[in-house]
Design a protein that fits this description.
This is Mon2/Sec7/BIG1-like HDS domain-containing protein. With about 180 residues, the chain is mostly helical. It has one domain (about 1-110, about 115-180). About 65% of the residues lie in helices and about 0% in strands. The chain contains nine helices and no strands. The N and C termini lie far apart (about 45 Å).
Length: about 180
């Protein structure tokens, strides 16, 4: 049901991504293997084929996506799910480093049309519409991604630990200059 709803109307989900990622995160921790496998299959399709849609409306959906992928890395049913989720975390890091998040492209196109009152920072450095006011400061996005990979570096499964460390170090080496 969720699969049909998301995949058939992916361009209309908009503010519903947060709820979808909450459902998938809950499924990642489920006791039934089939639920975990199905949820990850949907998540895989979303990240691989529809990534621009999940980041085009709200800045927080990127973080929700990352947190959902981190939840799937903890899958006790299937090591391949964990390794694939870590690979998608690399994909997220690359998209973030490229500035290839939908809301950031939209912001670049419309930044000249934003009123001065909307440009003012609201509480917590966010604009009234929930977007981050300082697009140069990627820490808000990098932190959950790097923290998730760092947490996985303590995973008891050697393959998961090695993969997470490799991606963490590659990300820091290749993109560390983008944040301080």
């Amino acid at each position: 049901c969720v699969s049909q709803m998301v995949l058939s109307k992916v361009n209309n989900v908009k503010s519903g991504w947060k709820s979808m990622f909450m459902v998938f995160t809950t499924a990642a921790y489920d006791d039934h293997k089939n639920i975990v496998l199905l949820a990850f299959e949907i998540m895989e399709k979303i990240v691989r084929d529809y990534f621009p849609y999940i980041t085009e409306t709200e800045s927080t959906t990127f973080t929700d996506c990352v947190n959902c992928l981190v939840a799937f890395t903890n899958s006790r049913f299937n090591k391949d799910i964990s390794l694939s989720a870590i690979g998608f975390l690399r994909h997220c890091a690359e998209k973030l480093a490229e500035g290839d998040l939908g809301f950031s492209r939209k912001h670049k196109k419309t930044s000249g049309n934003i009123s001065p009152s909307l440009r003012q920072k609201a509480k917590g450095g966010k604009l009234e519409n929930g977007d981050l006011s300082d697009r140069e400061d990627h820490l808000y996005f990098w932190f959950p991604l790097l923290a998730g990979l760092s947490e996985l570096s303590f995973d008891p499964r050697p393959e998961i630990r090695k993969s997470a460390l490799q991606i963490l170090f590659d990300t820091l080496r290749n993109h560390g200059h983008l944040f301080s």
